[in-house]
Structure formats: C-alpha cells, structure tokens
Amino acid sequence: xxxxxxxxxxxxxxxxxxxxxxxxxxxAGLAAxxxxxxxxxxxxxxxxxxxIETQLVHLDDPVINLLYQRIGLML
Length: 75
Prior knowledge:
Layout: H1 16-35, H2 42-55, H3 62-74
Helix pairs in contact: 1-2, 2-3
C-alpha cells in the first residue's frame, strides 16, 4: 500500500514502515501457503507475481526481489 498523497505520514498506525512490514509479512504467508503442498502451479505463481507487483514493487528488499525474479524465471 502506497501513501501517494502523504496522508498517513504522521499517523501512529499507518506509517510507511509499518505498512511495508505488514505487506512483507503477508507475502511470507502467501508464499508459505502456496508452497505448502510442495507444488506451485502456474496460476499460483502468476497470482504471487501480480501481488508483489501491486503491493511491494517499491521495496528495495533483496529477498523480495530475489523471489520476484525467480517467479519471473519460472513463468
């Protein structure tokens, strides 16, 4: 989630670091759920790639970037 108009800049509950951390936690849960059965389908990979693109594309996190690149290579 991006704060396009800096509306949450001074909020105790909705600041960028907190939102980014929550998004990263959601990503970990999604990835664990997708991989739980030991099989990653094309539809699951496409969903995860799209989710990363819409939620975390602005992050400069090497782990997220590595996952995103590997999904791209797989597809």
